[in-house]
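During the second half of the funding period, the structural biology subgroup turned its attention to how the target accommodates small molecules. The most pressing case was 1-deoxynojirimycin, which had performed well in the primary screen but for which no bound structure existed. We therefore specified the complex as follows and requested a full 3D prediction, including the ligand pose.
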Amino acid sequence: MPSEKWWREGIIYQIYPRSFQDSNGDGIGDLRGVIDRLDYLQWLGVDAIWLNPITVSPDADAGYDVADYCAVQPVFGDLGTVDRLIAEAAKRDIGTVLDIVPNHSSDRHPWFIDARSSRASAHRDWYVWADPKPDGSPPNNWLSAFGGPAWTLDALTGQYYLHNFLPEQPDLNWWNPAVRDAFDDIYRFWFDRGVAGFRIDVAHGIVKDKELRDNPLPTKDDPPWVHAHGQRSVYNVERPEVHDVLRRWRALANTYDPPRILLGETYVRDVRSMGLFYGKDDELQLAFNFTYVHAPFEAAALASVVDESETIIPLDGWPVWTVSNHDVSRVMSRWAVGDERKLRCALLSLLTLRGTPVLYYGDEIGMPDTRLRKADLQDPLGKRYWPAPRGRDPERTPMHWSDTPGGGFTKAGARSWLPLGDVAARNVADQRRDPSSTLNFVRGLIATRRQRPDLRTGAYHQLPAPAGVWAWQRGRETSIALNLSDEPVSVVAIRGTVLISTMRSRDGERIDRGLELAPWEGAICSSAST
Ligand code: NOJ
């Protein structure tokens, strides 16, 4: 039985199920494929996997439009396969975290089909409906996160329904106690099957302003992304009442042994707002830090986000870090711009900050975004905004397992749901054999983290360092420095022994007069006297 707070010291590995491993040759990853790859994940050293949605969905938004919250999308398997996955993962001390989408359902969910059938239907009030304005226009000015108005007129019943994302994703009405009860049952259904917890989609946004007030327009002090969106989304997300729901879910998660984890997709762009979702250790245990993901890859900027997060996250709270996911360009293409040295520095930060790292599948081998043609696109955002780079398919392409036809992902000759990237350039099989590969570097980092309590639980303190360098101490005897600059540097605050460096040849080197780092080099050092 894992300890109550196992996730604090553990590493979560994010699996995009469509792209991890295809076990039946249909070109789409599935749950049996994930089971087949558990030995790899155990070898890598992860403690939990988080799977993007595997529930029944017409796939208007890749599973984030759920038509049945308690059944498995047939292309992935069935409930029996999930049970086997949970059991097989547990045998390897790996917890299984699923994705839940409480903000909205699919427009094909029976609740919504009933809701739109008449104004008097049993489920009408499970969604957010409002009358048109006298001129027939939408009830207020809210915009969808995917562009265009957040309202669609339902011709049959003459009212608009709200959708913060696609029209195929109607927002549920979280003011309705029946919706709250229904989701309690959904959580229990999965918790009882043994899932370790949930990543909660749009955790910051499920409750909407009861009066449906207009969002204010951006002011000159607002950041560029607010201007790009066209309004400050203060009434359709981040309402104070969301905390009541999070507390309710936490209380439910705490009735299990060990307590189930709630990992929120708290998509807010400042650390202060993100910190609110921890509550008084009675809301989310982990709230994703998107300020870090979107920070520039510069020492001062990253250090400042971490410093602020350390200040803001309540003392008994626990940060969570990630550098890629299924919604943003991969770290190899974004921060590292194709440079292996930079990639390793990014991964070093991910695995050595105080907090739980969430590692996106393929980042351990440095998979870049895959260039795609218009005809390849699956993501509604990609199709809508082509050729603008807003689509999310490039970071969702199949895992590179080997340099064989099908890349080890699917059988030779099968057409994968998205094209494979350059599997010859980077794949697990080759990198496993090469002791100096990024894969073995990541595995070494994970092993070092396991061996050193400082890296798992030690406090974070920033250390003095030259411009362009970010250095910090963890616990009593471990320090880390990243030279995020084109100049060689010396970090005098660090003495001891190199445990791991992004350039492996230095491991074990004694540091008596300050740590010398080449451009874009990073290292973990032990300051224990040996
Ligand atoms: C966040 C998910 O990560 C994203 O992929 C999805 O499109 C939106 N929420 C809507 O569910």
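Two results from this model are relevant to the next phase. The chain is about 25% helix and 15% strand. Residues 177-193 form the longest helix (17 residues).
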